Amino acid sequence: EGIDDFISSLRGWTKIFPDNDAISNLDKQLGLIIYKIISKKLSFSNFERLIAMIIGSASDREIWSYVITMVDLLTTELKSSRSELQTNPMKSTLSMPNFKWKSSEPLGYGRTADSLTMALKFELSGHLYKSIDNFWEETFENKPWSDLTMRIWESYRDQGQCGTENPFSREMSEAAMRNWLHSFRDRFLYQHMPNGRVPTNGQPIVHRVAGDPFGGLRPRKLDFFVEDAALPDGPTHDWRNVRVVGELIASPRGICKKMHKLMRSFREIFYAQPLRRFVHGFCLHKLHVEFWVIDRSGAYSSREIDVIGSQEKLVRALSSYVLMSDEELGLDTSTRHDGNRLLVTIPDGDNQPEAIQVAPEPVARPETIMSRANTCYRTLDSMHLIKFSWGSGASRTEIDSLKLARNMEGVINLEWSKELYEVETHGKKIQFSSGEQVIMKDPQQTPSRGQEITSTSSQQYYKKHRLTIVKLSPYGRPLRSCTSVREFLSGIRDAIIGHYKLLNEAKILHRNISEGNLILTRPDTEGITKGMLIDLDMSISLNLRENPPEADNITGTVKYMAIELVKYVSNGIFKYHQNYWHDMESFFYVFLSGCITYGLHPRWAPTHLNQWCTADHGNNFRIKKSFVIDEFEDQILNNFSPSFEDVKSLAYDLRRILFIEKLDPYEENENTDILYGPIIRAFDDAIAKIDSKGLSSIQVKPITPLICRFTDKTYPLI
């Protein structure tokens, strides 16, 4: 209540400047914060630093500065919990790089239906299999409910639906198909369910309303879906409750578009249900039906099944969808909602399962389908991070690296881990060799036709992803939430120290240094915040004599990738032996990006560094090399945020150390002190200069801007 009152009083001051757009926007943000407090969607921990500043007698100017930073972070996070751990939307095979476009989301992924369709095509290319011979038998036969689906079919057949009343024909319209689904549901599904008119597990919805279901990333129209039968009847639906999706089409020219729409719907389900194991779906044409299963490794389908001659398989499949158990539908069984909290249940053999209370909204979740699908939750006490991940499909996982790095300074700590599920569990009996693999080299190609598979190695059909859960400590906050230049510098320095220890003590190379993989801890008893390195998904062990094949794949987040690696990628070379020097260069780009964009409202922060992470790798290489080598002062230093004017000398020092005057750093050298020592000392010297100005380690200067830039003029914000 005290926080609510305080923020309300701040809003009163914003009313004094009704004609200032920036302050009007701040007023709206404060209003949204108040609403979230009342709705209990924000916790006390979100305001700990603000409270500490007030108690510590910080100046009004410092408090206002922090408030602006805080509301920017909280309202941005509330609008969209973007994953910090996204993989790229381009084709991904064992020979391709594991790079990411941004720490927030893949480039252009899903901004429009067309861009999402294009991204999904590339994402699933090579991992999509059509016309599997034994799909029907493995999915719908010899199940506990198979006899009931047969009885439903026999009832349908015996009532003349396959004779003179057969609605399926070449002249059938989409409206007639929709009417058939309504009729089939009401006449045959409901009356044959064990519980009367309510299906055992799911209830079919024949629907077509834009924006419903809600809870996804974009408004979608669904032709048909099955949702939880235990839900009360109502006019609206939530993607979190969608179990099966289907699309209807009468015109043969629209089949491909419906397939794309089905894939977009799959994506919405995986976003709303990030721990979903797999999803069932179908595409019904007036002549045939095709059934699909999609998971984090790819998608596979049945053959096109005729529905004019007989609707047996269509009738039995639709009946099966409402009878399947949660496990058979691929639903998450490790979590359950309980009011304003989410309970994560961890099985422990014969012992009582452990239940962990976490905040219901993930702090990170994937927007892609084919990815590691890292999904992270904050424990209610804000002390730990619970991370679910499907991994890369490699034999060696992040957990292996975390175990070697336990209790290591500057690296997030693993408390425990457990494996929950394997993709192979539901796909091990599928005969992928009998189907057609779809590889879309042409962006205009559709997944309607594939090529015959010549390989007989099951290892090549799909990556054997394993869903794991880990409990990590401490729970941190993003590097971009830093409230002072000192905190920013010390956070990066601490992470570099963690990288040094990881390399020299655990013999692990991180290989994906980015803004999203550095966090700041809570202040300790002396008020000191530490920086930490997280996300060892792409790390490799230097102790292994024979690393798996993917160990040589170029990895990293494109924006922060070393120039040499970007050059190789631009030339179509995706395998290269990365070393610690590449990671140190990535730290440099994290530093530069922060100096340019932190301390400014996102609306006015320079965006020219985004030219380093476009879909044109050749352009990425040319521009990054030009900015760093030839135009460092004009493109980089002259764009530093006003708060970072005093660290330009550090930028020069880091550039000199990394590029050794010759601007050619990539000579292999086992002596890691060549880089680590000088770089850490450079950060220490810069931090010492800040401290020498009379600022203690607790009372530091916030980096949030006190000015907002409009064209060539500067106006005071406060």
What does this protein structure show overall?
This protein is of the alpha+beta class and 718 residues long. The protein folds into 3 domains: 2-79, no CATH class; 115-335, no CATH class; 476-718, Transferase(Phosphotransferase), domain 1. The protein has 20 helices and 26 strands. Strands 2, 3, 4, 5, 6, 7, 8, 9, 16 and 17 form a 10-stranded mixed beta sheet that branches. The protein has a 4-stranded antiparallel beta sheet with strand order 13-14-18-15. A hairpin with a 2-residue loop joins strand 11 and strand 12 (351-358). Helix 1 (2-14) packs antiparallel against helix 2 (21-38). The longest helix has 20 residues, at 60-79. It is globular and about 90 Å long. The protein starts with a helix and ends with a strand.
Report a brief summary of the structure:
This protein has 718 residues and is α+β, with helices and mostly antiparallel strands. Strands 2, 3, 4, 5, 6, 7, 8, 9, 16 and 17 form a ten-stranded mixed β-sheet that branches.
| Helical residue percent band | 25-40%
At CATH level 3, the topology of the largest domain is Transferase(Phosphotransferase), domain 1
State the shape. Answer: globular
Please report which band the strand proportion falls in: under 5%, 5-15%, 15-25%, 25-35%, 35-45% or over 45%: 15-25%
Features:
alpha+beta, 3 domains, four-stranded antiparallel beta sheet, disordered C terminus, Pkinase_fungal
Topology:
Blueprint: H1 2-14, H2 21-38, H3 48-55, H4 60-79, E1 98-100, H5 113-124, E2 128-130, H6 135-140, H7 146-161, H8 174-189, E3 202-206, E4 224-228, E5 242-249, H9 255-272, E6 278-285, E7 288-295, E8 298-301, E9 305-306, H10 312-323, H11 326-329, E10 335-338, E11 341-348, E12 351-358, E13 375-378, E14 385-389, H12 398-404, E15 413-422, H13 424-427, E16 436-438, E17 451-452, E18 466-473, E19 477-478, H14 485-504, E20 508-509, E21 518-520, E22 531-533, E23 540-541, E24 555-557, H15 563-570, H16 580-597, H17 617-630, H18 632-636, H19 648-659, H20 673-691, E25 707-710, E26 713-716
Parallel strand pairs: 1-24, 2-8, 5-6
Antiparallel strand pairs: 2-16, 3-4, 4-5, 6-7, 7-8, 7-9, 10-11, 11-12, 13-14, 14-18, 15-18, 16-17, 19-21, 20-23, 21-22, 25-26
Helix pairs in contact: 1-2, 2-4, 5-9, 7-10, 14-16, 14-20, 15-17, 16-19, 19-20
